[in-house]
Amino acid sequence: MKNYPQYLYLASGVKNGEGFWIVGVKNCDENILEDKNVVDCHRKELIGNKSAKEILFAINLNVNNLFNELRNKNYLIERPSTGISFDIPLDLLESIFDFWLDIYKDKEAWETCIGLLKVRKRISLTNLITNESLKGNSKKWAMKVENLHTYIPNSFRFEKLNDPMWQ
Question: pTM for the full model?
Answer without folding.
Answer: 0.87
